[in-house]
Amino acid sequence: MKFASQFSRRIFLRALPLSGVAIANGHLYRLFAQATTPTPVPIALWSEVCQELNLSFAETAAVTAEAGLDGIDCPVRPGGQVLPERAADDLPRLAEALAKHRLKILLMATGIANPTTPHAETVLRAASKLGVKYYRLAYWRYEPATPHETTIQNLIAQLKDLAALNRELGLCALMHHHPGDSLVGAKLLDFLEIARAFSPDEIAVAFDIGHALNELKGEWRDRFLAVRRHIRVMYLRDFKANQGYVAMGKGDVGASGFFPLLREMNYRAPISYHLEYPWHQGRQKDRKTLVEVMKREAAVMRGWLRA
Length: 307
Fold this sequence. Notes:
By secondary structure, the chain is α/β, with parallel strands linked by helices.
């Protein structure tokens, strides 16, 4: 990647005057190797942040490349960066813009709840043609008058046809947990009930460590282990107790024990990277600031993934 290669050259050139000592000790070699070796886990920018700045597809691709990321997690839903009714035309355009920087659409977030959702099949067929593997489903809510078990069984029934379509197209639908008392899956165990009815290659869980620390507190690890067999994609944002979502590396995620679990799983799917906090922090909310923030946070995330 462009950023990684530029960064590694700078390190190498700065280190040359010390080469007599450093090479003898092996320090220079290790420093250079760490800078040039990419992590095996691709990082996908949640590109809603590009929408906030009204960036075009070409500009979205450019800032993602400048930040040294591997691609994007694209909102393909009503009000999203790509509108569902435009997916057949606009997803290829976006993919082409990314390809110019050797980037990809690695993930998508949709408003799809079942195959009858408007434009669902259009979106999924367009994504499949571009080699997209994973897409996020819409969120579901509990209705006060409907028993828990009834809601779960209704959702399983609704997802059966979608699972069949995923199997045909080589796609996997992701249930993403989000804090909220009325949201299905906020505590994760609801998703376990649903996921058990399907192959994890067709209907799976997207685990979000930031949301888990927020909603589940100290219980997050046990819930993670309970659903681990059904997890296919990870979402990443940093969270600090009593403060909320914060800049990457300023919260509790790094010391949570999450990344050793990823290594135990030999996790290789993309990670969806979210800027959940006021990332401009008093500075101009513009393209330049966004790239600077993402570069810094990409370094933090790759450090966690390599540690």
